[in-house]
Structures are given as C-alpha cells and as structure tokens.
Amino acid sequence: MTALTAGAAVLSLGGALAAQALWGAALRTSVPVFPVGSVAFAAFPSDRPDAPQSSEDGEAVSLRIPGALLAEIIEPPEGTSKPVVWRFTAQGSAPGIAGMDYDVSVREQLDDGATHDLSSGHALPGTVLAGSTMKVFRAGLGGDCSAIPETPPPNEGEAPRNVHVFDGEDVRLQDPGAGVPGAMTTHEWCAVVEWNHADDGRYRNDVTVSGVGENGSVNHGIAAWHAVVGVPPALEMAGTYLGRAAADGSGENGARVRAEGEWYADLYPDPFGEPDIVIALQPAVTSPSPDVAAGD
Questions:
Q1: Of 28, 57, 95, 218, whose CB count within 10 A is highest?
Q2: pTM above 0.85, yes or no
Q3: Residue 9 predicted with pLDDT over 70
Q4: How many whole angstroms separate alpha carbon 264 and alpha carbon 248?
C-alpha cells in the first residue's frame, strides 16, 4: 500500500531583513523525498502462511476455497459426512497515528473463468454449495471453529441464503496509533460449510409376546428397538439412464428363441466439478479524527 512521504521544505532564517533577502532572491532549498512509514495488508489460507496475497495500493485481496474441498461433503474421505472447515488469516499494520479496518465478503463462485455472483448469498443451482450453508466468522482461541453461529432466518418472501458472513464489516485490525514498527496484527477466520440434507430417519421395531404359565397365569413381554436409517448426501439427480438388450437364437431343435431385458441407472452430477469460492478482504486505513472517514 502507499508509503507516507515528506516532500520539499522551505529554508527560512530569523529576522525580517533576512527573510526579505531570501524571498527577493527567490532562494529555495529542496529536501529529497524520503519514506517515513507505510501500511501493509495481506491474507492467506491459514495452512499456507508462505503464500500471502498482499494489497499493493489499498485494493481488496482475494482467496479461493477449492471446490474439491466442498465436494468432500458428498464423498467424505472417512465415509462419514461432516462439515467442511477452511481457515484463513488476515494480517496488517499501519504506522504512526494511522489504524486499519477491513471488510470480509464472499464474492463469487468461479469455475474456468465463469463466475456466479454470491453477494446475494444464493449459490449457483446444481452445485454442492446450493445444497449447503456456508458460514464465515472469526475463529476462537487457537483457531477454534467449533462455535458455529446459528443460521439467521430468511427475510420474508426470500429463499434461505446459502452464504452468511458474521461481523464481517468494519473489522478493527489495529486501533489508530497502536502500530508497532515491524509488527503485524493477525486475525484468523473460519469458513464452515454444512450440507442441508434432511435428518436421518429411524426405523422402529416392536414385539409383544404373551404366554400362559403352568399355573394358568397369563404373562406378557414387550420389546422395542430402533435402527437409524442414514441418507447419504447427494446432488439433485440429473436424470435416469435406460439400458435395453435383446438377444435371439436358434435351439438344437431349430426353435427360435428371443429374450429382452432392460435396466435403469440414476445419474447424478459429479461433485468434484464444484466451482471454487472467492472470499474478498478489503482494507481501509483509519484515523483518530472523527472527521476522517476510513480509507481517506
């Protein structure tokens, strides 16, 4: 981001006579431009601190969540569906009396140059994100992402959003005047994606047994047990494939034999074609003066 600089200065001498002589001769002494401080802002996946995306002139920096990571909701490596968690870090500093804020937003889905705007919070239909809910929020101590915020209710007449950012506006990274030369302030964030599948069902069995004892008494016994029926997550079915086969032949006795068969297969989109998700972080330099807006 832009360095703060000192420019030309006018050399003056005390006393009216000396000042008049200087101005009359139009004598000016230039001081070379020199840097007195700079502001810096960057973001990176928390597992890749060696690959920060830096803001050069105050522009937003962007990070990409791989679509293949979201696809693990459908086909998890462990065979058990669970939320996908992706962490990222914002860091920056400002010198002197300056401070720094930033905004976090989920910008778009991106796939081979084709984009889908996510500013409305609604994902591209037919994608894994469209069947999920993504929540972006500040991490707890030690990068903890377990305290997932509750999903806010949709606005009246609006379909439920797929993307929610919690407290992502005017995030205070550094208070004005609190900068330490050579030190960076860091914030860690969580992006948690959960599949919106229906709850697993339960199958119940009840058994009742009655019997007559040797003394003529009637005895009853009741037993019940439950079985959880899991529904594996999947994208919406794309269609059904119909296969047909026919065969005919002649028997040893010369009789002609013919048989036909058909089968069906349900087709589902490949979740590993999921678009990446772009998260943007927009920095702004702040001032202790209430008359100066952030970024000015």
A1: 95
A2: no
A3: no
A4: 22
